[in-house]
Amino acid sequence: MMETDRCGAGGGGGTALSHGIRPFDRAGEFVHNESERKEGRFPMFEQAFKRLDNHLNNDDGISTELEYVEQSSWLLFLKYLDDLEIERQKEAELGEKYRPILEEKFRWSAWAMPKKADGSPAYDKIKTGESLIDFVNKELFPYLAGFKGADGVKTDTIEHKIGEIFSQLENKIESGNCLRECLEDIDELAFASQSDLHELSSLYEVRINRMGNAGRNGGEFYTPRPLIRAMLKVVKPEIGETICDPATGSAGFLCESYDYLYKEGISGTEFETLQKRTLYGQEKKVLPYVIGMMNMILHGVETPNLARVNTLSEKLTDIQDDDKYDIILANPPFKAGGEGREIQQNFDIRSSEPAYLFLQFFIRSLKPGGRAGIVIKNTFLSNNDVAATSLRELLLKSCNLHTILECPRGVFQAGVETVVLFFEKGSPTEDIWYYTLDPGRTLGKTRPLTDKDMAEFVSLQPERKESEKSWIVSIDDVDTETCSLTPRNPNKPQEAPLRAPSEIVREISAIDKESAEILNSVRGLL
């Protein structure tokens, strides 16, 4: 039996498709509107996501957390696209004629959940079972993939992004009945108001976080949001500057940058700049590309500037001034041995470690005076191989590496110990402020990093104050041959030195002798 209840558009103050939204409060936590909570709208959205998970879990074609997110993402994207088309048609009624992006038969409202004029389901037009799967696999996906490379379709349009997504993606849902149930649940999710997008972006972030906890493959797509928010407070981007993440993943850096920059009272010109000419990303793999695209859309970016390319395939010498950015924020892949000789030839310092190649790309892609915050494995600071040593030398001489944040194991679920490098391009490093993050507890899946954990770092960093956890190292004290940047905290309270075993034995013997003398004295009294 089909569910016929639908969520209303809700929320005031214009539509989220044509106005910016700010999904989180300053602490980074989602806050429900009390009136909407009483109406029960947001629990309804949450229940729809839970039912969607249950349906996918029961399908033979879906087996991992990553696939749950992947398959729900393309469904969400098409529902969003239909709501966007409807919104643009309404706006066009007041002005020039609107030409829909998709042909009528491929609109969500035509194939996924066709309805009668009164809004009730048109059961005679609803596809189910094998006919639904055949339509999706043999007609819908080929049609959508055809936008890629189509005549007149520019790379910065939503049409191109549709083609990019569906030319690489495939429907993995095998059961037509399961897909039908998924369509019904997603049809309840509206994209027409700010409050709707607030909730949906919050729920989607939870799913991405869960995917990040799913294992070795999921972790590479997710950077803890409290860490990103702290990085933004150090880098301090402004509207009018360009921000790029060349290793986009789930687009956490770009989404948080949008939330950081979007403020109440933003002007129309500033909003257009933020939407169209501020946030840029590049991603090699199709799954994180789709997830990142959907994540940015749910955060309020109507047509994200995400390109599905291998960043490392571009030669450093081909990067021109017009290709450079004011700010780069990134968490390049941790794994080693991922790039072959053909890719390595694009770089001055060759290495099979992707992060080392990315770091060269970041430095080259910054404008003079540009700023960066980069997450990298802590071994970069001390590895003595030629590539690591040369790269540290390049960084210190071409950029002001002013801050290194040392993160403990557990910040990332992959178990990798990392550091965050903050630098500005154009002048050599004079001294480095180190900070060792110590939340006072073991971090992990059930005890993740929080904004509170980052508060001391954020408060001390602007003036680079010294403390038990922070200190400054002059460039004169850095070894000129190795350029080692290994953290050695001189302000850490000294622990009592371990005593030699022979000394401990002598003390025990002395105590035993004293105890025996006391016991003999007591016996004498008796």
In short:
The protein is an alpha/beta fold and 526 residues long. The protein is 43% helix and 10% strand.
Q: What does this 3D model show about the protein?
A:
There is one protein chain. The protein has 526 residues and is of the alpha/beta class. It is 43% helix and 10% strand.
Q: Could you name the key traits of this structure?
A:
single chain, 526 residues, alpha/beta, 9-stranded mixed sheet, 18 helices, disordered N terminus
- What does the main sheet amount to? 9 strands, mixed
Give the overall pLDDT as a whole number: 85
Main sheet: strand order: 3-2-1-4-5-7-6-8-9
Oligomer: single chain
Residues in β-strands, percent: 5-15%
Please provide the ordered H/E string of secondary-structure elements. HHHHHHHHHHEHHEHEEHHEHEEEHEH
Secondary structure: helix percent: 40-55%
What is the radius of gyration computed over CA atoms, rounded to a whole number of angstroms? 28 Å
Shape: globular
Q: Give the terminus-to-terminus CA distance.
A: 94 Å
What's the arrangement of secondary structure elements?
Layout: H1 34-39, H2 41-57, H3 65-92, H4 108-111, H5 129-145, H6 158-168, H7 176-187, H8 194-212, H9 216-219, H10 225-235, E1 243-245, H11 252-261, H12 268-276, E2 279-282, H13 286-299, E3 305-307, E4 325-330, H14 341-344, H15 354-365, E5 366-377, H16 386-398, E6 399-406, E7 418-425, E8 431-436, H17 451-460, E9 470-474, H18 501-525
Parallel strand pairs: 1-2, 1-4, 2-3, 4-5, 6-8
Antiparallel strand pairs: 5-7, 6-7, 8-9
Helix pairs in contact: 2-7, 2-8, 3-7, 3-13, 5-6, 5-7, 8-13, 10-11, 10-17, 11-13, 15-16
